[in-house]
Amino acid sequence: MVTREAVVAFIAEAGAIADSEELAAERGWDHVALVGVIKSLEAAGMVTSEPMKRESWKLTEEAEGYRANGSPEAQVFNFLSSRQSSSQNSDIDAALGDVAKIGFSVAMKNKWIQVDKQSKQVTAATQSITDATQADLVAFPNLAKERIDQLKKRKLVQLVKTTSFRTTPTEGFSTDVRKKETAITAEMCSKGTWAAESFKAINLTNVSGIPCQGGHLHPLMKVKQEIRQILLLMGFEEMPTNRWVESSFWNFDSLFQPQQHPARDAHDTFFIQSPARAQNIPRDYLERVKEMHEHGGHGSTGWNYTWSEDEARKTILRTHTTAVSARMLKLFAEDYEKTGVFMPRKCFSIDRVFRNETLDATHLAEFHQVEGFVADRGLGLGHLIGVLKEFFRRQGITNLRFKPAFNPYTEPSMEIFGFHPMLNKWVELGNSGIFRPEMLLPMGLPEDVTVMAWGVSLERPTMINYGIANIRDLFGFKQDIAVTKKNPVCWIKATEVAA
């Protein structure tokens, strides 16, 4: 058992502890207990310690079993070789359990065993084998790198991280290991024993306390502020985005998206259980949207189906901030109906949206969307491409591609791609297009007004700017707080603003 006295005696004799892990192994001490003694001596000002981090590979518990009994494929072969007749798969499973499932395919690949196609009987295909895997496990870790890599692929070795300490005595080091008193008591004063006591020195260096580690901005917050500044400098105004829970009407129907569209099912959308139905939808506007869906108008044939108000009133977590744009355009249409004058507008929003998607390196179920639109007369696709190029240029992303696409509420439509240097591939940044008349005219906007719009991910440009390959390292519960603390502020340059 490691004791404070034994550790102090060793330091006094040897002059230092070169490696706490080696010392623990040499003396038969528990390393964790030894580190505890070292830390207590360090707290008393008697020693200083320096951590030494190590990484090493060791055999897993599964590998230890294979080391003793042979690899799974060898165990399957040995079982079949020991039998006088052929066997069924069920016989192997009963004899070897889980090992059979692992070893059967490898033994077949190595042509150690064979299966009769007619009877499905399994027999040994050779007289003897060489179990290279068991030999590697016995020789581990004295193996060539490629052999260790093979063991890694089979998950037979695991990475072990350890921390050892180099410990040196300070000027306050003493072989007197009596516990130092921290305060003079009334009893010490009355008995006069205080003079013989040893007191712990008062530390006045940290009287102000440890500085609070706070105020670090997440990379998404930095890029969000940058993009907001870019759009404001480009003359856009910000829209309110305080509706995370939205009705299917504003999220889908007002955008001329049919109710049978696959994006509206549970595989892509999160539906709200309570409240399950939205109430405050303007009746006259709802009827115009219904008419456009069922029969069309203004030159459109619509979708030619029976539109359901119940479906439109279902509440969801919004799948895009285009619902925000739809609400804002409806307000502009109401102003036009009151005044008879349409004023060109440029608006944007940046907020969270939700998709019931499969999670991978570039997709999350919860992410941020940058939405923008320009409403004016005489606009076309060339204007949209120009705005998008300028928008991304100010972010430092100049390698862009545009691909024709289909959206129910935009025509023509384009997907936006940016090149990701870390992934070495083109990554989809968002979608864009010209809002269809079937969406705008039921709102009450003038027929000669064009609205070009786009919606892009906030995470994708952030990943490109910060060189992050996996979106889960940027946003979500797996994100390392060190990423937030260490990443520099990412502001746009003054020269780019001026441009």
UniProtKB/TrEMBL annotation:
UniProt GO BP: phenylalanyl-tRNA aminoacylation
UniProt KW Magnesium keyword: yes
GO cellular component, one term: cytosol
SUPFAM superfamilies: Class II aaRS and biotin synthetases
Single annotated GO MF: metal ion binding
Source organism, top-level taxon: Eukaryota
Entry-linked Pfam families: PheRS_DBD1, PheRS_DBD3, tRNA-synt_2d
EC number: 6.1.1.20
Cofactor list: Mg(2+)
Localization annotation: Cytoplasm
Domain Aminoacyl-transfer RNA synthetases class-II family profile: 222-488
Principal location listed in the UniProt entry: cytoplasm
Keyword Protein biosynthesis found: yes
Keywords: Aminoacyl-tRNA synthetase, ATP-binding, Cytoplasm, Ligase, Magnesium, Metal-binding, Nucleotide-binding, Protein biosynthesis
UniProt cross-references to NCBIfam families, sorted A to Z: pheS, PRK04172.1
UniProt similarity note: Belongs to the class-II aminoacyl-tRNA synthetase family. Phe-tRNA synthetase alpha subunit type 2 subfamily.
Protein name, UniProt field: phenylalanine--tRNA ligase
Organism: Noctiluca scintillans
